[in-house]
Amino acid sequence: MAExxxxxxxxxxxxxxxxxxxxxxxxxxxxxxxxxxxxRALEEMEAKYSDEVDESKVARFKVDRWLRPxxxxxxxxxxxxxxxxxxxxxxxxxxxGQLPPAAVAQMRSRGKNLPSNQSLPFFAxxxxxxxxxxxxxxxxxxxxxxxxxxxxxxxxxNPEGKAEVQWWFGGGVDMTPYILHEEDCRAFHQLLKKAxxxxxxxxxxKFKKWCDEYFYVKHREESxxxxxxFFDDLDQPSPAKVFNFVQDCAHxxxxxxxxxxxxxxxxxxxxxxxxxxxxxxxxxxxxNLIYDRGTKFGLMTPGARYESILMSLPLTARWEYQHxxxxxxKESALVxxxxxxxxxx
Amino acid sequence: MAExxxxxxxxxxxxxxxxxxxxxxxxxxxxxxxxxxxxRALEEMEAKYSDEVDESKVARFKVDRWLRPxxxxxxxxxxxxxxxxxxxxxxxxxxxGQLPPAAVAQMRSRGKNLPSNQSLPFFAxxxxxxxxxxxxxxxxxxxxxxxxxxxxxxxxxNPEGKAEVQWWFGGGVDMTPYILHEEDCRAFHQLLKKAxxxxxxxxxxKFKKWCDEYFYVKHREESxxxxxxFFDDLDQPSPAKVFNFVQDCAHxxxxxxxxxxxxxxxxxxxxxxxxxxxxxxxxxxxxNLIYDRGTKFGLMTPGARYESILMSLPLTARWEYQHxxxxxxKESALVxxxxxxxxxx
Lengths: 345, 345
Hints:
2 copies of one chain form a homodimer. Chain A is an alpha+beta fold. Chain A has a single domain, classed as oxygen-dependent coproporphyrinogen oxidase (3-Layer(aba) Sandwich), CATH 3.40.1500. Helices cover 41% and strands 25% of the residues of chain A. Chain A has 11 helices and 10 strands. Chain A has helices at residues 7-15, 23-49, 101-109, 182-197, 203-214, 239-250, 253-264, 271-291, 293-300, 306-309, 330-339; strands spanning 62-67, 72-80, 85-99, 120-133, 140-152, 164-176, 216-217, 222-223, 227-234, 316-318. The longest helix of chain A has 27 residues, at 23-49. The two termini of chain A are 35 Å apart. The mean pLDDT of chain A is 93. The A-B interface holds A 64, 76, 78, 80, 87, 89, 218-220, 278, 282, 285-286, 289-290, 296, 299, 304, 306-307, 309-311, 313-322 and B 64, 76, 78, 80, 87, 89, 218-220, 278, 282, 285-286, 289-290, 296, 299, 304, 306-307, 310-311, 313-322.
């Protein structure tokens, strides 16, 4: 695990007083743990299936720490052109500062009770990842878990009003297969449902639907992939309980993805499979650059670290005019599912 | 030249009465001529430099006619995986119908004097093209010329008010080199300046600057390419005079681009040049999907023909995390120019 972004966190971790510390510190630690665990698990697969005879040449994650001039920073771990992963990125960021009025307005528009026309102090921490494997039999996976705090000052016109901190969690995970293995999709959704059901029996169906709606390429009228979970603004029943849920979700990452990598890393594929994968990656780029709120919001932020934001883009992508997979092929079967999201559990 | 989109146009062309016909018909004819001439000139280069021994196998444009259910249609000409062009698209569209209030509001916001909160009948015709060549010594070229009419009904509250038709032209052309040949950039801008100067001595510097500002990848703080011309809302001094200017601009396309293709088609390049080209194509995708108004506006339109809109995307593109060309290389020299647009004339 890397050194934390926030200097005070080192002390908390080493003194063993983390559990009693503020959620900000607990969540930053969680992000670092998720990053470290997921990177380690991915690297094990790379080592297992690497074409390199010389062990020292096996592709590994490069760790890139960066600071945000306005406050905070992040750690981007990236592995490119491995034997298993064409491009794999796992990023954490822990930022704080003033949320500009335009960003506050955007939050108000989705229902947050925040005062208008003023900047507000904020804290945001998150871990996110996109893994684009070499073998088209292994799906791309994406996840993101984040925690947000906004300080709302006391209303001077209201003598009983007090300053308050609004907090919420968001996140999700979704898979994008190229060559569909239904067994992998079912296992993935089953693990997600199990994690959800431990906390609220309504979560899985609600967040699965939200995911299908969110990762939708409108102009093509098809989903980006086979979905997963997506949620935002989760601020009930309590910080500790939501955090527990988020941790449970994150703990499904290794058991839901790594066995898929392990199972499919040596499955054969041909030139056509690779071309199809590149075309589907073009669709992935379309979603991320046209629709994804995180990408858009990120790039519009002055001083944004665009390299970490655009780490989600594949190493290579392809666009052919009016490409249509022939009917009754495995490619057309995938498109059918993308056009009509199905229930996997 | 293909059959026109508008049925009444065939008659006008064959009866020889086109010059006296409405601008709508004249402009549609112009679009078709530009498409036909440019495609023919591009195909000549493909034939000259094709690797195919069998002439019948030389890549040619495929012509794809499409109708828009809401009114009008278009003709998309596309050539993929040729010897000279990796992907070349030349598209015309001629559409009419009702402009929804949201689109009217967008036009009002950029200064158009149009009534709010109502749909307005409109007509729009345009020709646009993006050519992505195989050889990184040949730049990508993009152009677009368009004509717009909006019918504004008489204001019932104003007894002197009359119904009117608002019209304007827009367009431009720009080049995106991979391996920079300054001679090509200078010749390109010189031809553009000459075309502009014949009409208004202020046009070239004004429209060159507009182009530099428009084709700007904000998050990377660099231009998409070496610019050219860009203008919009041109509605003075008269339809005939602006149309003359637009025609003059369009007539520089073949003489400014085809000699570059001819000069560079056999220039050698290596693996690194190709990788650099793919990375720059990634930037091209970023501009088109994140910033380009035409693409965004197009994709948000219900029933949009996204295949024709996305024809501008390259066949292949590449994203590497934090790629930086080494200093004092031809790649870094290009980036310098993209970060500091220069005067070529």
